[in-house]
Amino acid sequence: MERKRALISGAASGIGRATALRFAREGWDVCLTDRNGAALPAVLESMERGAHLICPGDYACPEDVAALGEQIAKRWGKLDALVNCAGIFMSADAIDSPLELWRRPMDVMIDGAVRLTRLCVPMMPGGGRIIHIASIHSERAERYSSAYAMAKAAIGQYCRSLAVELADRGILVNAISPGFIDTPMGIEDGVNVVDTPWFQDNYVAGHHLPLRRAGRPEEVAGVALFLAGPDASYITGQSIVVDGGLTVTF
Ligand code: NAD
Predict the structure, then answer these.
(1) Could you tell me the CA-to-CA distances from 206 to 136, 191, 197, 198 in Å, in that order?
(2) Is the minimum distance from the CB of 56 to ligand 1 under 6 angstroms?
(3) Is there an atom of ligand 1 within 6 Å of 239 CB?
């Protein structure tokens, strides 16, 4: 049987890395892309062998995305899935922070999602799967994360719109909305948010997070694999929340 091919952005770290490893383990060929190109060979080294590709680049940069497209077209010629995991988190005061800085999550993540989608759709002539990693921030609010939350909300709506627009091409489009996942994104000044008294008191000892722990990147990767696979053939336009029950509490 022909092996399936997935492009995974943000593959150098966290959820993207775990997704690349999981897809490779399940027999997919994977194209790893990330702006942190230096970290990609080590990811490749940890993966099951396959006709994998490494294409470093910034997914919000038109030239980098064009180069990525050329590589995939030359080496594979087609794609079966895009899993767009790349992203940045940034705290910024909604009123007082410089506008340029505040806008950054939107500029990077919305632009990146759109550019990768436009790149991949023509390479899925027989149908395919698109999975964008959104966040519970797309529907919930927290101080100082307005631009991140707006970007993730936009990505959720983008998935719904694409699901409608791409259905006749046989392309199913979904999002995954993680809650707290233990990845390098949660590390600030050397401190992992899940180790802070704030997280431990509210979410481990307290009652806000029913499963009382942060998720593992592998627990998101498994959902991405499901959405890319045969058992998700009647799911499109949805966002699957992977948050240990966080958003059902109050
Ligand atoms: P991470 O920091 O471990 O990985 C993110 C990766 O994206 C990094 O390797 C980074 O280099 C790459 N990246 C960032 N900007 C890029 C760009 N412009 N071009 C190319 N690559 C770029 O973080 P993670 O937790 O694995 O995050 C993966 C996705 O999950 C992100 O979209 C994030 O917003 C989302 N998410 C994470 C959490 C969490 O708690 N970790 C929760 C909800 C949503």
Answers:
(1) 19, 21, 11, 10
(2) no
(3) no
**112 touches ligand 1 (CB under 6 Å):** yes
Active-site hit among 148, 158, 203, 234: 148
> Ligand 1, closest atom to CA 181?
40
Q: What is the DSSP letter of 97?
A: S
C-alpha of residue 1 to centroid of ligand 1, in Å: 33
Q: Is 59 a catalytic site residue?
A: no
CA 139 vs CA 130, 136, 164: distances in Å: 21, 6, 21
* Dist CA 79 CA 68 (whole Å): 12
Q: 0.70 exceeded by the pTM?
A: yes
Render each residue's pLDDT in the chain as its tens digit; 250 residues.
Answer: 789 999 999 999 999 999 999 999 999 999 999 999 999 999 999 999 999 999 999 999 999 999 999 999 999 999 999 999 999 999 999 999 999 999 999 999 999 999 999 999 999 999 999 999 999 999 999 999 999 999 999 999 999 999 999 999 999 999 999 999 999 999 999 999 999 999 999 999 999 999 999 999 999 999 999 999 999 999 999 999 999 999 999 8
